Amino acid sequence: MEKSECHDNASVQQDSDEHLCVLIHGLWGNPGHLSFLAKSLKEKHPTSKLHVLVTKSNSNNYTYDGIDVGAERVGHEIEEKLEQLARDGVKIRKLSIIGYSLGGLIARYVIGLLYSKGKLDQIEPVNFTTFATPHLGVRTPLRGPHMHLWNVLGARLLSASGRQLFMIDSFRDTGEPLLSLLADPGSIFIKGLAKFRNRSLYCNIINDRSAVFYTTGISRNDPFTDLSKVNVQYIKGYEPVIVDPDNSVTPRIKDLPTTFSHRLGAKSANFARTAPWTILRIILIPVFLMFFIIHSFFESFRSSRRIRLHETEVDGVFGTYRIPLLVDNVQSAVEGVIEGINNARDQEYLDDGTEEVAAYPNQTQQASPRPSQKLAIEPPTRSSETTDETSHSSITSKHEVVEAQSGQKSTTRTLRRYSSELSDKPAMPRKLDLPTLALHPRQFAMIRALDDIGFKKWPVHIHKSDHSHAAIIYRRTGPNFDEGLVVARHWLDEGFDP
Predict the structure, then answer these.
(1) Whose CA, among 145, 183, 447, 485, lies 20 to 30 Å from 397?
(2) What is the per-residue pLDDT across 257-279, written as a single tens digit (0 to 9) for each?
(3) Annotated active-site residue in 40, 96, 101, 248
(4) How much is the pTM?
(5) Which distant-in-sequence residues (6+ apart) come within 8 Å of 130 by Cβ?
(6) Contact assessment for residue 210 and residue 426, using Cβ atoms and an 8 Å cutoff
(7) Known catalytic residue: 170?
């Protein structure tokens, strides 16, 4: 890494196969959050011609300003870096983009901008990876008044980024939420993403309260909701952190019935252990919540001013990023616009007779652990070729989601392939039931579109920290975060081509 950054011999480097890797941090983040990943890249490839750019234009509360605004800033940073390297005699021929949390969504938007400008025809797109990125937004499908309150208030506390994450925005003149456009098969974002050689994601299975499993893992169900009922299977050499995506869980044999006194003793011990923390949370949470709300309104006001200033610069440095979002010149039609999260579903899971469940019958039927888990984690269909031929986007109405024809064919092929796998494998005496989460129809459409281009999905099991969102990238040092070292090692071994 140091050798490639010094540029001591520009004439030798001019025709070399140089690689630029861009790292993008998340909400309220800064470049320091990604310092370990950047350092790990340099240590893994010390002699390769790999350049690392850790973006800084969206540091801290600048992430309030919206995914699109943040992406335009990052796009400008990337182009400035390419120009600077060119002046030093370095020709970048490969590009990788890595996003953490909200940074993964910014990365997907940036890829669309680069695609529209022809940059991905000039530079080979190699690796795209996200860590704990809410690809489906952060609207929660859980029941309860506190979750309903979160869906209503959360979107209004984070300025433009909050509205986009909760999918209550109407993006520019499209009439659709931005996240829906990011997954539209006819958009520049999907077409650009399909060009990358490797697409992968790492998602926490527990204790990620910033971005839960279904959205970071792009999944319609969650096999990890109750780990006491399953045995988690791991990748050899990376246990017990990296979960085997092809066989992530198997049913756990029930323990023998215990006596009443034994159960009472266990419950008493658990209460004694958790009661002090519960009381502390009851006292402190209202205080911190009030502070957070006041701070969020203040930062949202500042963010709106920055966005207005950014818009005045569209004719200048950022003007080249305002391009058509849909390549196929077909705008998705929507009957009605979501005006809030008050219409959030009450149920946690969908009934078996619903349209979304019927489209993927094997995911809710009882199946043997290994094949059913393949459907639960939803492996890629690797149909990026058909994505480029898609002539229209998914259309959402009040009662149904009408898929693009190519998406239907790809989904049918996928189900047939996995149905064949089910029939080829011996039946297991114990079955695993994976119900479908009560997601919004737009989220189901997003899952189909993203799965059609293909992702390698790596579930991550952080045991030591209840802040797995930070631990997954080893955001800070300490024994409770050292499982993030395993995640980084696996990514460098299996998910990053230099």
Answers:
(1) 145
(2) 666 676 666 666 666 666 776 77
(3) 101
(4) 0.71
(5) 98, 99, 100, 103, 104, 107, 200, 201, 202, 216
(6) no
(7) no
